Amino acid sequence: MFEKKYDVIVVGGGHAGAEATAAAANMGSKTLLVTMNLQTIGQMSCNPAMGGIAKGQIVREIDALGGYSGIITDKSAIQFKMLNKSKGPAMWSPRAQNDRMRFAEEWRLALENTPNADFYQEMVSGLLVEGDKVVGVRTSLGIDIKSKAVVLTNGTFLNGLIHIGEKQFGGGRAGEKAATGITEQLVDFGFDSGRMKTGTPPRVDGRSLDYSVMIPQPGDEKPEKFSYLDTQVLTTQRDCHMTHTSALVHDLLREGFDRSPMFNGRIQSIGPRYCPSIEDKINRFADKDSHQIFVEPEGWKTVEVYVNGFSTSLPEDVQYRALKSVKGFEKVKFFRPGYAIEYDYFPPTQLKHTLETKLVNNLYFAGQINGTTGYEEAASQGLMAGINAHLKINEEEPFVLRRDEAYIGVLIDDLITKGTEEPYRMFTSRAEYRTLLRQDNADFRLTPKGYAIGLAKEERMRKMERKQEKAQRFIKFFKKTSFSPEEINPILESLDSATVRQSDKLFKVFSRPKVTMDHMLKLSSVSEYVEQHDLNSEVMEQAEIEVKYSGYIEKEKNNADKLQRLENVRIPDNFDYSKLKSLSFEAREKLESIRPVTISQASRISGVSPADISVLLVYLGR
Predict the structure, then answer these.
(1) What pTM does this model have?
(2) Helix (H) or strand (E) holding 416
(3) DSSP E strands: which ranges in 459-513?
(4) Which of 559 and 543 is assigned the larger pLDDT?
């Protein structure tokens, strides 16, 4: 069946596996995606949404590099919101509700239309390894498939165990069996493994809900989109709704705590801190009588509803009684109960920045196998693993993004350098250069890099260049064009901003906090320029941010440049830390384990102090 040797084999068809397959195949590698069920490629296992705080930036970055997630999201969106719009642009984060069935269908069709991508449905039970290099995979039917590189994106399937109350059974997702064999083999190779937990809420019949007593949560009046390409903007949207739990709901849930796998010791592993189960929220925040519940439709036509905020592993009868007491859910009908799932992961400090493992050459890990949570975090890792697998087997330079270049760079550096003992989720607060890493400029930051490695196509690159040129010309226009006090003062007075006595450049007045592009467009010189040069909202937004935040942006660039000097100080691969007696014991232990590539990476390792870095710098200087 598989006489030929593949360049890259991707194991798993979730968000990480789909992006890895697309990236490797589009760069020219003959790629095989092996998954246990071809009908669930790109499946939204949890909530039917993409993006959110910091996650939206990641989707934009994937798109800018030439990945598929942004395009798929736009094609299947049912609602769009730009979150944090009341804050500065570094915090703006796009989020879309999606049609779950269409999302998976669009992923399947996109991959089927990708040259160099093949598919096979079966469980991978082991790896083929010769010496210290992976050379393929073995399936549960005993079929050996050879390849030059392998990307593991197993999600929650490695020895997955589902919990509903006191019941537990093997599975990687509701209705699907767990994957076995791979963990045991990797541990035999010398890998450390651990267990993590995540959960999901009940799915219910929307026809049984009373939306009239809930609070509507509509999308933006002027919805945007994710992809920088010419995907369609939503013209109609579906509302989400919000309701709340109550003291009665909490009391009903507590009745089942003695049968909860979280509280009776059945679940030992750690769940996501920032997406706790409803029983965990009640336990941790005992003083609160109410928690928000977001009622999210699963698509345009389906009646299935996702009960966001009610993730639980309590017994199904407890779930049902408690949810019936939530406002609007009095006549609720369940499609399926919520559950928790435990699964194997591998601490990511065992990886290089390319996501290649340190122990086995040409073997890459991406997604929840690395201890992350979230579709977006997984997809970005899959993209980077697919890119680097292709580059490695073609003996090209690895592709690594720095912390000042992308949220993807922050994510991977955090994982490789610090590791994680709980499901890792990206936040804007994790990025020290978030003013540089905005959602609006991901194409400026990353499309040239994607184009240089052969992933982003010519059309994408030219589109970015045109946008960049228009934005820069517009900014120059503000810097060289003057205003008259007669024209600008009425606008400033309406904003309670100090008026001016003499003419000055538009750039100066535009930099004031209260003055927006809408105000500037009231000036004839600005409106005429916009009309004459056919500027769209995207270009105008870009120019506005660059003008108003130029000082902050410049400061962050300078800080990043200073840190980059430490990135240039490389540590030899075989460096012997035991020779440096001045290092603290903890620093020596951590440095030996993680093997940082640069002084900058070493400085970010927990337990390595500035004094330890000084010792390293002095020694390397010698």
Answers:
(1) 0.93
(2) helix 407-418
(3) 482-483, 504-505
(4) 543
Distance of alpha carbon 88 from the chain centroid:
21
Task: Clarify whether residues 58 and 105 are in a common domain.
Answer: yes
Residue 563 forms part of a structural domain: no
Which tens digit of pLDDT belongs to each residue from 198-214? 999 999 999 999 999 99
Evaluate if residue 64 carries a pLDDT over 80. Answer: yes
Q: Are residues 526 and 385 in the same domain?
A: no
Domain count, the chain: 4
252 and 190: one domain? Answer: no
The answer to whether residues 157 and 238 belong to one domain is: no
Q: Rounded to whole angstroms, how far apart are CA atoms 571 and 616? A: 9
Helix (H) or strand (E) holding 540: helix 537-548
> Closest by alpha carbon to 99, among 164, 152, 25, 49?
49
What is the predicted pLDDT for the residue at 108? 98
pLDDT value at position 404? 93
Expressed as residue numbers, the domain containing 579 is 568-621
CA 475/CA 550 separation, integer angstroms = 11
Bridge partner residues of 79 (DSSP): 97
pLDDT in tens, 549-583: 999 999 999 888 887 887 888 899 889 999 888 89
Identify any residues that bridge with 216 across adjacent strands, giving them in sequence order. 241
Q: E-strand spans in 236-347? A: 240-244, 292-297, 304-308, 334-336, 339-345
Assess contact for 129 and 135: CB atoms under 8 A: yes
Does a structural domain hold residue 561? no
Question: Cα(164)–Cα(266) distance, rounded to whole angstroms?
Answer: 11
Residue 119's alpha-carbon distances to 12, 122, 379, in angstroms, are 11, 10, 19
622 band by pLDDT with thresholds 50, 70 and 90: low
Q: Which two tokens stand for residue 252?
A: 């009903």
Domain boundary among 530, 555, 580: 555
